[in-house]
Design goal:
By secondary structure, this protein is an alpha/beta fold. The chain has nine helices and 13 strands. A nine-stranded mixed beta sheet has the order 5-4-1-8-9-10-11-12-13, with helices on both faces. The chain has a four-stranded mixed beta sheet with strand order 3-2-6-7. The chain is globular, with a radius of gyration of 18 Å.
Length: 310
C-alpha cells in the first residue's frame, strides 16, 4: 500500500450553514437569515482537505452513507487531492448532516442528530494506519473515538508503525468519556489540540498552563490549546509558549480549528520547529474564517506563506 504523509480518521458530514439568523419571525412559521448554504464538513474531512492543499500526500478513513450527501463529501475530497479509497459507504446509515447557526462575528452553534452515532470501526483497517507517517484523530471523545477500545487499537497500530499521533478533541455528545477513561491511551498521543472550552471541560482548570499540565500528567507529550481570537498556547515537559492570533475579520469560524491542526501537522512533517508550525497553523485557521464553510477559503501553502509575510 502506498505510503501516506497524513491519514485523517473520524467524522465526515455535510454542514447546513445558516448565517445571520434572525430569531424574530416574519410570519407564524417563517424566519429570515442572511444566507443558507451546504458545505462539506466533519473534523476528518476538514483536516484532510487542508493537509492535501498544504502539499501532503493525504488519505482519509471515514464513514459516509450511500446517498447524495455522501457523494458531495467524496467529490470535494477528491477535488482537493485526498485519497478516498478507504472511505466506507453503506446504505444502512445516512451521511450525518449538521445544522450550523453562524453569528455575524463568525461564532457558531450546531445541532447534531443520531446519524452522528454511526457504527464505524477504524481499528479494522490496520493496513492504511500502518502506512501513514502521521495520523490525525478527528476527533477524540466523538464517534468513532468515544470507545476506549477503538482508540487504544488505532493508537497502538499507529505507534507500532512509528507514526506521529495528533489528537484533536470535541466535547462529548452521545457517549461521555473523561481523561481517566483514556489513561492508558493518552501516553500514545504526541500532540493533543483541544480548544479552550474543551480543555476547561476535561481538566476542570481555568488557565492555559494549568489545563495543559493536566493533559501532560496523563502522559500526552505535547499540548496545544486553541484559544480562538487569543491565538494558541503550547506546552510540553521542556517549554511553553503563547502565540497571538492573526488579526482578521472573521466571517465563519467553522473548521478553523481543524485547519490549524492539519496545517501544524504538515509543517511538523516538513521538519519545522514547534513554534514555526504553530505560527503556520495559526495562519491556516485565520484564513479559514474568511469565507463561509470549512474548506472554502484555504487554497494552498503558497497562500498561507504569503498571508504570514503580510
Amino acid at each position: 500500500m502506498e505510503k501516506t504523509d497524513i491519514l485523517c480518521i473520524g467524522t465526515a458530514l455535510v454542514d447546513s450553514i445558516i448565517k445571520g439568523f434572525d430569531p424574530d419571525p416574519v410570519s407564524r412559521t417563517g424566519f429570515l437569515a442572511d444566507s443558507c448554504s451546504l458545505n462539506v464538513g466533519g473534523e476528518a474531512v476538514n483536516e484532510a482537505v487542508c493537509a492535501a492543499k498544504m502539499g501532503m500526500q493525504t488519505g482519509i478513513l471515514c464513514y459516509l452513507g450511500a446517498d447524495s450527501a455522501g457523494e458531495m463529501v467524496k467529490s470535494t475530497l477528491q477535488t482537493a487531492g485526498v485519497n478516498t479509497d478507504k472511505i466506507i459507504q453503506s446504505p444502512d446509515t445516512p451521511t450525518p448532516v449538521t445544522t450550523m447557526f453562524v453569528k455575524q462575528d463568525g461564532s457558531r452553534k450546531s445541532i447534531t442528530n443520531r446519524a452522528h452515532r454511526y457504527n464505524f470501526h477504524p481499528e479494522q483497517y490496520q493496513g492504511c494506519i500502518q502506512n501513514a507517517r502521521a495520523v490525525i484523530l478527528g476527533s477524540l471523545f466523538r464517534a468513532p473515538f468515544n470507545d476506549p477500545d477503538v482508540i487504544r487499537s488505532v493508537l497502538e497500530t499507529a505507534k507500532a508503525a512509528g507514526a506521529l499521533v495528533f489528537a484533536d478533541t470535541k466535547l462529548p455528545n452521545f457517549h461521555p468519556l473523561s481523561l481517566s477513561d483514556l489513561k492508558d491511551c493518552l501516553p500514545m498521543v504526541d500532540y493533543i489540540t483541544p480548544n479552550e472550552d474543551e480543555a476547561m471541560h476535561y481538566t476542570c482548570k481555568d488557565t492555559p498552563s494549568e489545563m495543559a499540565d493536566v493533559f501532560l500528567s496523563y502522559g500526552v507529550k505535547n499540548v496545544i490549546l486553541k484559544l480562538g481570537s487569543k491565538g494558541c498556547y503550547f506546552k510540553n515537559a521542556k517549554e511553553s509558549l503563547s502565540l497571538p492570533a492573526y488579526p482578521i475579520d472573521a466571517v465563519d469560524a467553522t473548521g478553523a480549528g481543524d485547519s490549524f491542526v492539519a496545517g501544524f501537522a504538515s509543517e511538523i512533517l516538513r521538519g519545522k520547529t514547534d513554534a514555526e508550525a504553530l505560527q503556520f497553523g495559526n495562519a491556516c485557521g485565520a484564513i479559514t474564517t474568511t469565507a463561509v464553510g470549512a474548506t472554502s477559503a484555504l487554497l494552498d501553502r503558497e497562500q498561507v506563506l504569503a498571508f504570514m509575510n503580510t
